[in-house]
Structure to design on (118 residues):
């Protein structure tokens, strides 16, 4: 399945991955550390995808405002914004803890695979 087909079937897939990363990386840097990193990634991603400024990172590290956007934005735009945010988050993690440790933690979090939720 191509990336575009996958994005169309689940435009929030990248946001689901980000949610699943929270506990994985929160164990390493604490919930507040992960929240701060995600907040910074959101600021960086907003420079590329302006509508991301409508989202907020809640105290629990989850992203607020996505449901409202799903009703307004087209699925392709949501998918693109999620990919940009995930890329910025992973880039910050690589900068903070290094590529090897980031890849190791992602590999250990192999439950990050996106299964259809039903």
């Amino acid at each position: 399945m191509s990336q575009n087909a996958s994005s169309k079937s689940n435009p929030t897939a990248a946001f689901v991955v980000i949610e699943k990363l929270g506990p994985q990386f929160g164990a390493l840097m604490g919930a507040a550390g992960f929240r701060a990193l995600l907040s910074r990634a959101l600021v960086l991603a907003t420079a590329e995808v302006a509508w991301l400024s409508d989202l907020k990172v809640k105290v629990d590290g989850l992203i607020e405002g996505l449901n409202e956007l799903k009703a307004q934005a087209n699925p392709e735009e949501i998918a693109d914004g999620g990919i940009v945010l995930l890329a910025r988050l992973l880039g910050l993690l690589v900068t903070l803890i290094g590529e090897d440790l980031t890849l190791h933690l992602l590999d250990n979090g192999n439950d990050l695979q996106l299964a259809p939720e039903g």
The chain has one domain: 3-104. Residues 13-46 form the longest helix (34 residues).
